[in-house]
Amino acid sequence: MMTNLFSGFDPSSSILALSLNWMSTFLGFFFIPYLFWGMPSRASLGWSLIMEALHKEFKTLLGDKEKGTTLIFVSVFTVILFNNVLGLVPYVFTSTSHLAMSLAISLPLWVAFMLYGWFKKTQHMFAHLVPLGTPWTLMPLMVLIETVSNLIRPITLAVRLSANMIAGHLLLTLLGSNGPHVNSPTIMQWLMMGQSLLLILEVAVSIIQAYVFTVLVTLYASEID
Predict the structure, then answer these.
(1) Cβ-count burial 118-139 (b if 16+ within 10 Å, e if not)
(2) Which residue in 47, 80, 88, 187 has a CA-CA distance of 20 to 30 Å to 204?
(3) Mind telling me which residue stretches traverse the membrane in this protein (predicted)?
(4) How far apart are CA 113 and CA 62, in angstroms?
(5) What is the DSSP string of 135-188?
(6) Under a CB-based contact definition with an 8 Å cutoff, are residues 81 and 210 in contact?
(7) Is 112 in contact with 101 (CB distance < 8 Å)?
(8) Angle at which helices 42-61 and 71-86 pack, to 10 degrees?
C-alpha cells in the first residue's frame, strides 16, 4: 500500500520516461511567450499586476535597489509556481516534490550569497554571527548557533517546499484511491466534493509555498547588505 501510495513521486525506471518526466519542469516556459507577446487579455494583465506587486515587495525587502536586482527572485517565484500548479494536473510529474529539484534552486542561490558576502563584506558577515547586545560569555555559543542556522538554510528551504507538495499530493491520492471502492452515491458525492475542495486548497498551497520560498531567499540576500 505504501509503495503504491508513493509511486506517483517516482519519476520512472525507464531512461526515456525519466527524461520526459523531468522535462515537464519546463512546461511553464511555454506560457511565458503568450503572457508577454500575445494579445492583451485578462490573464496577461493579471500576471503583469502580480509581477509588479512582487517587484515592489522584493525591492522593499532588498533595501530599495534597482529593478534588475529583483529579476532573479521574480524568476524563481515564477518557476516554482508553474511547477507547483502544473503538478496538480493529472499525469504531470511534480518536480518540486523532489529534493533534487528544490535543492537545485536553493543551494546555488545560498552559495552565491555566501561567496559574495564573505569575499566582499567579510566584516559584515562576521558581525552577523553575534547579535547586538549578546553578553560576552554567550558569544562563542551564539557564533556556533548562527553558523549552524546559516548552514542549514538551503536544506530547510528545499525540505519545506518538497514536504508541502508531497503532503498535498498524498491526500489527493488517498481520496482518489477510495473512489472505486465506494458503492453509495451519497458517499461518492461527498468524496468528490471533498476532493474538489482539497484541490482548491492545494492550488492555494502551491502559490503560498512559491511565495514563502522566494521571500525567504530574498530575506537571506538582504542580510548580506
Answers:
(1) eeeeeeebeeebeeeeeeeeee
(2) 187
(3) 15-37, 71-93, 99-119, 126-145, 157-176, 197-221
(4) 13
(5) -GGGHHHHHHHHHHHHHTHHHHHHHHHHHHHHHHHHHHHHHHHTGGG---HHHH
(6) yes
(7) no
(8) 130
Residue-wise burial string across 171-180, b where 16 or more C-beta atoms lie within 10 A, e elsewhere: bbbebeeeee
Cell numbers representing residue 208 in the block: 503560498
Cell of residue 76, nine digits? 524563481
Percent of the chain residues past pLDDT 90, beyond the cut: 16
What is the C-alpha to C-alpha distance for residues 51 and 78, in angstroms, rounded to an integer?
A: 9
Number of H helices, E strands in the chain: 10, 0
Q: How far apart are CA 76 and CA 67, in angstroms?
A: 15
Q: What is the DSSP string of 96-132?
A: GGSHHHHHHHHHHHHHHHHHHHHHH-HHHHHHHTS-T
0.70 cut: is pTM over it? Answer: yes
As given in the structure block, the three cell numbers for residue 52 are 509588479
